[in-house]
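Take a look at the protein record below and tell me what you see:
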Amino acid sequence: MTDLGGLISFLDSSPSPWHAVDSAARLLLEAGFEPMVLDDAWDQLPDAGFVVSGAALIAFRRATDGDAGTPFYIVGAHTDSPCLRVKPLPDTGAFGWRQLAVEVYGGVLLNSWLDRDLGIAGRVVLRDGSIADVAVAEAVCRVPQLAIHLDREVNDRGLVLDKQQHLTPIWGTGTSTQGDFRAWLADQIDVDATVVGWWELCLFDRTPAAVLGADASLLASGRLDNQISCWAATEALRTAASSDRHHQVIALFDHEEVGSESTTGAAGPMLEHVLERLHLAGGGDRGSLLAALTASACISADNAHAVHPNYPERHEPNHRPEVNRGPAIKMNANQRYATGAIGAARFQAACEAADVPWQVFVSRNNMPCGSTIGPLTAARLGIETLDVGVPQLSMHSARELCGVDDPLWLASALGAWFTG
C-alpha cells in the first residue's frame, strides 16, 4: 500500500489550489511524465504527459496498443477548498487595529476560522505579466472571536457570524493605509511594490497535517476536501501499469466549491479539449472521438460524509460510511451524484481487484446532499461517470478529519481502475 507520508507531504506543501497543482506536477515529473503546453501544437505526443492551466492539471498515459477508437478511463477531482481570500484592496481597520479585507470563497464552515494563526498562499501577477507563487507559513493574521463576557448567550443560542462584519482578520496594530499589504507582499516575493499587479491569495490554517488518536488511526489537516482525491488520483496514475485497452487520464479541476463554471472548472472546456487533442493526435477524427467517449468511463473522486458519532440522526440508516472502512460509493437518485448501477459495479470490481473494502453513501431524504464534478462531467462529455470519496468529518472546516487507511485504499482502488 502507498505510504501515508506521501499524502502528508502533499497536504503540507499545498496551502492553495495553485500549490496543489505544483505538488501533483512534481510527482508526475518524478515518474517521467512530460510537461506540455496548451497553446502548442500536439503533433508528437509523449507516452505520458500533463498540462497545467492556473490551478487545474490534466495528465495522461496513452494506451500501449491504442487506436483511433481507444476509450479514456478518467479520474477527476478538484484542487480548491473553501477558505477566506484576500480582496484586491485589503487594507482596512479601526480602533488601532490593522486588518485585511477578505472574501468568503465557497461554503465555508465560518466558525472554524476563528482564533487560528493563519498564513497566506496563492499567486501574484506582476505588471510584466509574470507570475510568482507565494506561501507565507508564518502566523500572518487571525480572526479573533468575541469574548464570552461580551456575548453571554453564545453557548446557548449558538454562534452567529456575519460574513462581512465578523470575519475580517487582524494582522497588526496602528493605522492602516492603502498599500500596506501590497508592500508587505512585495517583500515576501522579493520585488518592488510598484511591480505587484494583482493577486489570488488564500488564508490557510498553518498547522501541519497530523496523525492523531491513541491508536494513530486518524488524519487531521486543512483541505482534505479535496486534496486527498487529488493526491490519490495522481498517485494512482503515476504508479499504475499502462493499459492496452484505454488511455489513463486524471483531471484536477479548480472552482468546484463555487460551481465549476470557469475555464479551469469542470463545467469549462479544458478536459474536453485535451481529450479531443489526444484523440486527434492519435489519428482519430470527430466521429471516432464521439464513439471513444461513449465507451469511456470517469470516476469523480470527492470526499464523503462519515457518520458523526455526536449526530447519528443526521445520516441515512444503512448508508452511513465509517472511517477506515474503505472509500464510499456516493449515490443520489436525483443526480446530485452521477453514480448509476453500472458505474457502482465497475468501482466495486476495481476495489475487489485491489483488495480494498468499500461502502455506500446516500443522504437522508430530508437533508439534500451537495454535488460534485461528476454530474457536470457526465452531462458535458456523455461519459459514464460515478462518484466516490473518502469518508471524513468536519467537511469545509479550516481543519478536517479522516481515517488514515481510506486515502491509501482510494489510491489503490483508482490504480486498479486504471489497469482493469
